[in-house]
């Protein structure tokens, strides 16, 4: 009887700890709603910026970009004046995307970047926080200057 009781207690503890730490609500596809500096109320990105975040089976993929990005053929870019080439490339490169594995528990989200649009970020991690506001996922982070940014996503 003591063995059965100990087993039951261990099983209950395991089930409770699993349900408290794992957050299966993150699984799925999310569309970007906004990114806002909570101190200023401003966004560092274009108001019409689009984004998609997919999280499933411990892996994530995220990309945001301005929808008005336009492709110009290489030969046309080569004919542009240098200032226009620079402006075009800045607009073209204004993209945020990375993918890898993730872990999430108790409002903490860790992204392990395997691939990134920024080669310096490959192999790095992002330690983020998240919370729920009704049906919205709010991923938030604080910069060294103390400004908090709320990155809001809606389930697709």
Helical coverage, percent range: 10-25%
Radius of gyration (Å): 21 Å
Report the top-level CATH class. Mainly Beta
Number of individual domains: 1
Uncertain parts: 3-21
Q: Which fold name corresponds to the CATH topology?
A: Lipocalin
Strand content: 35-45%
How many DSSP E strands?
8
Q: What is the count of DSSP helices, taking H or I runs of 4+ residues?
A: 3
Mean pLDDT, all residues: 86
Strand order of the largest sheet: 1-2-3-4-5-6-7-8
Shape: globular
The computed structural class is: alpha+beta
CATH architecture: Beta Barrel
In this structure, how is the largest beta sheet organized?
8 strands, antiparallel, barrel
Indicate the topology:
Layout: H1 2-21, E1 28-37, E2 50-56, E3 59-65, H2 74-79, H3 82-93, E4 95-105, E5 108-116, E6 125-133, E7 136-142, E8 148-155
Antiparallel strand pairs: 1-2, 1-8, 2-3, 3-4, 4-5, 5-6, 6-7, 7-8
Protein model, in words:
The protein is α+β, with helices and mostly antiparallel strands. It has a single domain (24-155), classed as Lipocalin, CATH 2.40.128.280. It is 24% helix and 44% strand. It has helices at 2-21, 74-79, 82-93; strands at residues 28-37, 50-56, 59-65, 95-105, 108-116, 125-133, 136-142, 148-155. Strands 1-2-3-4-5-6-7-8 form an eight-stranded antiparallel beta barrel. The longest helix has 20 residues, at 2-21. The model is unreliable at 3-21 (pLDDT under 50).
List keywords for this structure.
alpha+beta; Lipocalin; 3 helices; 24% helix
Give a short synopsis of this structure.
The chain has 156 residues and is α+β, with helices and mostly antiparallel strands. It contains three helices and eight strands.
């Amino acid at each position: 009887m003591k063995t059965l009781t100990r087993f039951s207690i261990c099983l209950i503890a395991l089930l409770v700890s699993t349900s408290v730490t794992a957050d299966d609500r993150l699984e799925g596809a999310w569309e970007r709603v906004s990114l806002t500096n909570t101190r200023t109320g401003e966004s560092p990105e274009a108001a019409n910026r689009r984004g998609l975040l997919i999280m499933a089976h411990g892996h994530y993929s995220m990309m945001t970009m301005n929808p008005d990005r336009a492709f110009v053929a290489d030969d046309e870019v080569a004919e542009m004046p240098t200032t226009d080439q620079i402006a075009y490339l800045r607009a073209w490169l204004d993209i945020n995307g990375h993918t890898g594995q993730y872990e999430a528990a108790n409002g903490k989200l860790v992204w392990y970047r395997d691939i990134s649009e920024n080669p310096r970020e490959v192999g790095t991690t992002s330690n983020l926080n998240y919370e729920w506001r009704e049906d919205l996922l709010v991923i938030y982070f604080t910069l060294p200057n103390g400004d908090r940014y709320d990155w809001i996503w809606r389930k697709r």
